[in-house]
Amino acid sequence: MRSRDRYIFESSSDVHFVSSTVVGFVPIFEIPAIATIFIEKLRFYLMRGDFTLLAWVLMPEHFHLLLRMASQHSVSSAIGNLKRITAREIIAFLESQRRVELLERLSAEAAKEPTQDSRVWEYRFDSLVI
To answer: Nearest-5° angle of CA 99, CA 113, CA 128?
Structure first.
């Protein structure tokens, strides 16, 4: 969740259950190359040390993560970075493959979101300290 107007009651030692969904529940991760984009970026932030990944699952239209944040990172910044870079790369991939129908569907679903920061992800994510 975005932390605007919220108090932060978390520490880096907490384990977080994080979940986020593709706009309109479009099942883009059924396309292996798009699933690979997500997995590679998740691995990048893991190797960079932003968080420790305890478990994860990638479903056709959403993901779940169990993670522990590094002391210098917040859940909001880590998930925001992950969603931002994956959105850019997914859109670039779809454009390069001329997947116009899927691009149009994502754009139409994103237009229904309160903020249109991304044409791939719902504007928010769920985070629960476990």
So the answer is: 105
Could you give the CA distance from residue 28 to residue 46 in angstroms, rounded to a whole number? 23
- DSSP for 10-62? --TTSEEEEEEEBGGG--GGGSHHHHHHHHHHHHHHHHHTSEEEEEEEE-SSE
The residues near 59 (Cβ < 8 Å, ≥ 6 apart) are 29
Distance of alpha carbon 62 from alpha carbon 55, whole angstroms: 15
Q: Is 70 helix (H, G, I), strand (E, B) or coil?
A: coil
pTM of the prediction? 0.87
SS3 letters across 89-115: HHHHHHHHCCCHHHHHHHHHHHCCCCC
- For residue 15, the one-letter residue type is V
Identify the pLDDT of residue 2: 46
Which residue ranges of the chain lie beneath pLDDT 50? 1-3, 5-7
Specify the pLDDT at position 10: 54
Assigned token pair, 112: 């229904």
Estimate to the nearest angstrom the gap between the alpha carbon of 13 and the chain centroid. Answer: 21
